[in-house]
Amino acid sequence: MCRNPVAKILKSDTVTDPRAPAVAFFSSRGPNVIVYAILKPDVSAPGVDILAGWSPVASLSDDPNDKRQYHFNVLSGTSMACPHVAAIAAYLKSLHPNWSPSAIKSAIITTNVSDPILALASADFAYGSGQLNPVNATDPGLVYETTTEDDLKLLCHLGYGTSRVRVVTGDNNISCPARTSPTAIKDFNYPSIVIPVPPKSDSFETGLLRTVTNVGSAANATYRAEVVVTTESARELKIQVKPDVLCFEYLGEKKSFNVTVCGGNFPADPFFASAALIWSDGTRSVRSPIVVYTLPPM
Question: What pTM, to 2 d.p., does this model score?
Answer without folding.
Answer: 0.86
